[in-house]
Amino acid sequence: MPDATGLELLAQELGDAHEGSVQDTLFFRDRGTIVVDAAHVRAALAFLRDKGYRFLASVHGVDHYPEEPRMGVCYELLDMERLDRLTVKLRVPTDAARVESVTPDWPTADYQEREIYDMFGVVFYGHPDLRRILMPEDYEGHPQRRDFPVGGEPVLFTFSDAQGADYTAWGDEEQT
Amino acid sequence: MSSVSEYRKQEESVTMAPLHEQVASQVEEVGERSEELLTLNMGPHHPATHGVLRLLISLDGEVVRDIKPIVGYVHTGIEKTAEDKSYWKAIPVVERMDYLAYYFNAQAFCGATEALLGLEVPRRAQYLRVIHLELNRIMSHLVWLGTSALDLGAMSMFWYGFREKETVLDLFEMSSGQRMHTRYFQVGGVIEDIPSGFEQKVRDFCALMPTRVDQYSDLLARNEIVLRRLRHVCPLDAETLLSLGVTGPLLRAAGNAWDLRKAMPYSCYDEFDFAIAVGTEGDNYDRFAVRLVEIKESVKIIEQALDGLPEGAWMTPDRKVALPPRHELATSMEAVIHQFKLVTEGFRVPPGEVYFPIESPRGELGCYVRSDGSSKPARVHMRDPSFVNLQAFAAMCKDAYIADLIATLAMLDPILGGIDR
């Protein structure tokens, strides 16, 4: 893990290289996080890759409801040589949840960005194949959002379809 | 039009159209006989897919040109469910993600929660965790070995593998009362000390297992059919694997000795002496051989952990997190209050976000937990190795025969419960 000073230095360098890219740094439980501006994420990750963080371990989405901006995307970077981890984080509002895809640089982000799109509705522009991955393609809504209700999912059956069943997210019940 | 048939139509939109055109134009250029790519659907109900995995395969004769895996058939919304439960009640839910590595899921989640709490886990609990994690790794690899050998046509291996797997499950049953999804790991330690007689049973198992691995090796690694189906089949170099995010035995088979247990030790893995198996070529045989050696190394770790098992508490003494012992409830009012608070509300976790990675049998299993200060996690995400590793499947199988695709899928060892969560 970079120590708190190392994290600040790294964030400083990143901020100098890409004007306005660094918004904040967090150091929590010996883990460093750089909060970057959503518009600069691809450049920032490319910069950090040149700094040795060559492995993108994970990409995941977070919903900060009710805080604004709500949607968060975290990139867990790993430097396999210096045994160092770093989290890069960004926040976007729900009504403009658009982030540049990093899949062209890091092929591993492909499925994970699709999952975030599926679950949170964050659109990754520049992604080669942005479709839902876990939910059915005709599913309405983004179920991992905090204001998405739990329960009441109807089961898809061909037989019930012949009976004219409704398979929207709300089932046969009246839409509230 | 009804919504299901619309759904079917949309599913059909997942096509290989650009690739078909590309090949067609190439064929035209060369002026050879006009051939079309055949799109073959495999799964979701296919025994060799090791779960409900669906593959859309573009075939050029018998040669695989492209694969599109389609997942999500067993998506059960575990991450969403976990947000609705207090931390200690979320453990059995996350255990069900990768259903062959339940101790690992629990360790990743408990580890993340402990990091958020800043909680120290007693050393005996750490050792007990390591013993169970490594037993689980052996169990997971045995299931992989049995089912993979079955895919290659070696049926007897399946029974031998499951014979030892049952022995491990008996051990789990002895220590926790459950064979699968044991809920043995708790935030702050383990639920109970190991019963008397458990250590001897584990030692018996450890004494037996290396010879069993040798027997499996004799059975398979000297078999002409197995060798022909594994050697030099579908190799992928470490650089490509890393760019695709692949970790675990698949990466080690390609020669990169990356193992989180060694590289960035968590729990108490730095106190054990074990080797990391690496391959040279990164083909299916290396993937097979690396896992066999890993079973032996796990046995070594378990033996060392049993030898050095420290005395003391197996659960943190912090009563804000751990349930009070049963006998205290009859005598202590504080214990009753703590018990009531924990069972009804659960413990509160300071706000923050933590990513806690561990080495599961399939690679880096990272648990991301965000706390908003309440007693329920605001977000639980598992970076499941099966999900990420599956992306390498198309790269591995490109221009290989469709029969080798089955062998490669077996060696990839995806667990669909972990992919779909």
Please explain how this structure is put together.
The complex is a heterodimer of chains A (176) and B (421). With 176 residues, chain A is α/β, with parallel strands linked by helices. Chain A has one domain (4-140): Beta Polymerase, domain 2, CATH 3.30.460.80. Helices cover 23% and strands 26% of the residues of chain A. Chain A has helices spanning 4-17, 41-50, 109-120, 158-162; strands at residues 22-28, 31-36, 55-63, 71-79, 84-92, 98-100, 123-125. Chain A has a 5-stranded mixed beta sheet. In chain A, strands 6-7 form a two-stranded parallel ribbon. The longest helix of chain A is centred in the first third of the chain and has 14 residues, at 4-17. Chain B is mainly alpha-helical and 421 residues long. Helices cover 51% and strands 12% of the residues of chain B. Chain B contains 18 helices and 8 strands. Chain B has helices at residues 3-12, 17-30, 78-82, 87-95, 102-117, 123-151, 155-176, 198-220, 224-230, 238-243, 249-253, 260-263, 284-307, 333-344, 385-389, 392-397, 402-412, 416-420; strands at residues 38-42, 54-60, 63-70, 185-186, 189-190, 352-360, 363-371, 377-383. In chain B, the strands form 3 sheets. Chain B has a 3-stranded antiparallel beta sheet. In chain B, helix 8 (198-220) runs antiparallel to helix 13 (284-307). Chain B starts with a helix and ends with a helix. The chains are: A alpha/beta (176), B mainly alpha (421). At the A-B interface, strand 3 and helix 3 of A face helix 1, helix 3, strand 6, strand 7 and strand 8 of B.
